[in-house]
Amino acid sequence: MAKQISFGTPVNDAERWAFSLLAEELPDNYILLTNVEIPTKSGQAMEVDALVIGEWGVYVVDVKGYIGRLDAGLHAWSLDGRQVDNSLAKANYVARVLAGNVKHKIPVGVYAPWCQGMVFITGRKGEEIELEKQEGSLSIYTPQQIVAALTKEWGLTAPHSHQVTDEQKEMVLKTIGQVALVEQRNNKIQDFTKLKCLFIQSGLEVWQAEYNPGGWTAPWLLKILIATQFTDQAQSESHENQLRAEFKRLQALTGCSGVPYCAPLIQDGEQLVLPIRMPRGVPLNILEFEKLTTYQLLEILRRSVSGLQQVHRRGFTVGGWAANCVFVSDLGDVEFIDIKDNLNISEDIQAYAEGFLTLAEQTKQPRVYQWYRLAAKGGSVDLDALRCDLSALIDNGVCDSLPERVEIATGAIIDHHYKLEQFIAATQDSQFWRATHIQGQYQCGVSIYSKVEAKWPTLSSLYRSLSKLHHPHVEKVLGFGQLAQSEDLFIARGWEYGVSLDELADIQLGQPVMWFTQLLSGLQYMHQMDIYHGAICPKNIICNLEKAILVNFGIGLDIATSHYASRYADPQLWAAEGDAERDLYGLVASFISTLAPVSLQGDGGQEGIIQALNSFDKEWFGEKTFNTCMKVLNFEFDAPSGMNYLQAFDVADSLI
Fold first, then answer.
1. From start to end of 86-217, where are the E strands?
2. What PROSITE patterns does the record point to (predicted)?
């Protein structure tokens, strides 16, 4: 892209289009002066459409928007049979004047650069033009040849070719006069000074600029729309509406972290300008996150989430998630410079997760990168949970090196929070411990589960939901995560005093119906939230004198299968059943097997549980409750969404 300095305003569309083409196509070391005046000895100035200071010479370019067939000779020209002015003769004359002026100013020992005239026939924006030259050497070119003629040696009319030196370029600029002042004027928009063009296409430009109202400066971005450079009015109006809409969005988001400040729109008749404060830091695509500490990475993620949440709470979405449109500062601040508001919230979160996934994986924190992996696939939209996790990791301190593997034993520290105090029970793939919350100094339970890496995304989503819900008869989740350098999952839960249902030594009258009713209310609440236990058995029901609690949601299957496989976890038995019906089956079967003598349960399968139920007195059990339990055990009971379980089992009064 050539450096363009505009001395005046283009007089027609042909000039505007020609200048835009030359500025975009000519090399960076070329200088393009447009609508410039060349002084003569008499003091009269001659206007030149374009003056190109190039590699091989200085070209006085006359722009003509002729449409049709042009026959150009050395002396006369005709356009579709009509006589038109010989523009090359005029351009050559001005070139000779310029060459003479340069020779008078050039110091001794320095050669003057070659100056020549040239005509650029544009047609209708590069089309609808046919050129016939009577002599092939005439410097008259269409858009297909103009750039090559200006940049290649063959475009010269000089007898000998010499490259133009930097000193010769400076002498030409001095001959023109006031070039620096004109350039400064062109680069000034109110108190903003354009420094570097970052993007230019049709009538859209993006400039790096400087705000300098007095004794201090600040970096800004200027989005400039020049209506006259668009191909048609409709396109110009469309882009203007987009720029105005962007201004309104930025104004509405003022004060949100992650959103750069914008100044009011500037409209001077020729251009519409949106000033946006230059984001601090570097784009995400060139951020060297490998050199950052774990704490710095987590802080970047936390601030990005906070900024995104604030944008969403104002009723907008970011949309512009290209890596070069997200900036990260040295302090970890994150800013979005392309807020498009063109996605819904779920799509916006997915795009955000895709953009920050690599950075999240660099933290080596499972609960962090697993969220980003899941969200990048469209599987999670819970920003609150992510922000809470990030804050907890930062506030409790995280080693920048990879954490050591935790050996599960008395005194071990889990997730910086929980100290294992007493081993309670174990199965082949799980352990349960009584632990102390180190900071809070209260008792809690910690379960350790092995070989759950493949189930982590599902379990993570489940326990995030459980951690935000409360029901007195459902375990209270305090924390969860994956242990370092292992596939083991830990879940910390509120400590519940009591024993599992099958270990009760003494059952008082009225306790079973109380516990059963409490657990039904808990199941109904969870099912309404689309949360299912999946492995209800006596080992996953904790009872005390006052209440019963369901534990081990989603991961108690190994406990169920190790003790009651044929009754509660037979995959063939459950193949055609829904999640809600499975949970209800497990609950009913657990209480029947606990209350009935083992001798009445046969082989312990479905038929045995039904046989045990038939041993109870319907009147003592309650006829409606008995019939509903029988339907559940026969898989004849449907549990549609919204069903009241307490009424269906006729135990609503027992909860009061």
1. 115-121, 129-133, 140-141, 188-189, 192-201, 204-211
2. NERD, PROTEIN_KINASE_DOM
Long-range Cβ contacts of 83-89 (<8 Å, 24+ apart):
87/62, 87/119, 88/62, 88/117, 88/118, 88/119, 88/138, 88/139, 88/140, 89/117
**pLDDT digits over 361-383, tens only?**
998 887 789 889 989 998 877 88
Model confidence pLDDT, tens digit, residues 294-334: 889 999 999 999 999 999 999 999 999 998 889 999 888 99
Q: How confident is the model at residue 499 (pLDDT cuts 50, 70, 90)?
A: confident
Considering just the CA atoms, what is the radius of gyration of the chain in Å? 40
Handedness of CA 567, 569, 571, 573 (dihedral sign): positive
Separation of alpha carbons 329 and 280, rounded Å = 5
Closest to 580 in 3D by CA, of 488, 648, 507, 478: 648
CA atoms within 13 A on the CB side of 624: 8
Looking up tokens 């090559």 gives 148
566 band by pLDDT with thresholds 50, 70 and 90 = very low
Task: State how far the Cα of 532 lies from the Cα of 554, in Å rounded to an integer.
Answer: 7
Closest-CA residue to 71 (of 59, 60, 84): 84
Provide the greatest CA pair distance for the chain. 126
CA angle (246 as vertex; 240, 252 as ends), nearest 5: 140
The whole-angstrom separation of Cα 576 and Cα 281 is 57
In this prediction, what percent of the chain has a pLDDT beyond 70? 89
Which tens digit of pLDDT belongs to each residue from 592-602? 888 888 777 77
Q: What is the pLDDT of residues 150-172, one digit of tens each?
A: 999 898 988 888 888 888 888 88
The token duo for 303 is 């601030």
Q: At a CB cut-off of 8 Å and minimum separation 6, what does 303 contact?
A: 257, 258, 332, 333, 334
Element (H or E) spanning 104, and its range? Answer: helix 87-105
> What's the helix, strand, coil split of the chain in %, to 5?
40, 25, 35
Q: CA 363 to CA 160: how far, in whole Å?
A: 65
The model carries a pTM of 0.49
Tokens of 109: 């020992």
Distance of CA 354 to the CA centre of its chain: 6
User: What DSSP line would sit under 208-220, residue for residue?
Assistant: EEEE-SSS--EEE
Strands 188-189 and 140-141, sheet pairing: unpaired
Select from 581, 571, 514 the least CA-distant residue to 548: 514
* Helix segments in 336-432, DSSP class H: 345-362, 366-376, 383-395
Q: Virtual CA dihedral for 9, 11, 12, 15, nearest 10 degrees? A: -60
CA dist 77 → 81, 130, 139, 339, 383 (Å): 9, 13, 14, 54, 71
Task: Render the burial of 208-233: b for 16+ CB within 10 Å, e for the rest.
Answer: ebbbeeeeeeeebbbbbbbbebbeee
The DSSP secondary-structure symbol of 5 reads E
Question: What CA–CA distance (Å, rounded) separates 29 from 389?
Answer: 53
Contact 250, 276 (CB under 8 A): yes
Amino acid at 31: I
Q: Could you tell me the pLDDT band of residue 464, with boundaries at 50, 70 and 90?
A: low
